[in-house]
């Protein structure tokens, strides 16, 4: 495997009596996609929130660009270039594409003694950048977010992260509520951004969405890492068994018959 851009080494995390993660390690090379799969309660959300700076691990280390880092907050993670696109997307429905694209980092211009939003620059930049990275279905940045499809909303969030310098993008169930056609578009976006050198962690329940984009597949089960597979070596039946049971024992043997 290539030299990792981001590593989680031997991460453990407890919430009260719940041991959410048990000594989990993952490594994400530059320009690759790591799929993180597992059933509900597997520990996926806890791990990505540690990588996003939302939670701090009880033990273990985070390494980024060959140095150990402390991710004490989401702001610290973003400053390094780790951006998380959550399932709810944090987009403002009543605002335009351009306003959401620059949300929290709006450019301004001076009008006499007053500083006002540079809406022309926001629209021009957003439209240009969306075209540049291959999102051609959105021809105007004036459109309100509430009028967009689920796939288009994901595209806006991905494009915004790229524009503001993300090096690692964590995508939390980006295809879970999309139609087959929209999900395919999002998978295309993931392939495109990794081709541009961005590294992605892709969290999903849908294995059919994993195989077209993942370079590495990591399986979590009840907070433990139970499998890791390189592209082309993953047997779907083995991965499904690991997700459901945490091992690859045949059902009759696992049941003791």
Automatic annotation (TrEMBL):
CDD domains: ABC_Carb_Monos_I. Residues 6-247 form the ABC transporter domain. Keywords: ATP-binding, Nucleotide-binding. SMART domains: AAA. PROSITE patterns: ABC_TRANSPORTER_1, ABC_TRANSPORTER_2. It comes from the Bacteria. The keyword Transmembrane does not apply. One of its GO terms (molecular function) is ATP binding. InterPro entries: AAA+_ATPase (IPR003593), ABC_carbohydrate_import_ATPase (IPR050107), ABC_transporter-like_ATP-bd (IPR003439), ABC_transporter-like_CS (IPR017871), P-loop_NTPase (IPR027417). The keyword GTP-binding does not apply. PANTHER family: CARBOHYDRATE TRANSPORT ATP-BINDING PROTEIN MG119-RELATED, SUGAR ABC TRANSPORTER ATP-BINDING PROTEIN. This is Sugar ABC transporter ATP-binding protein.
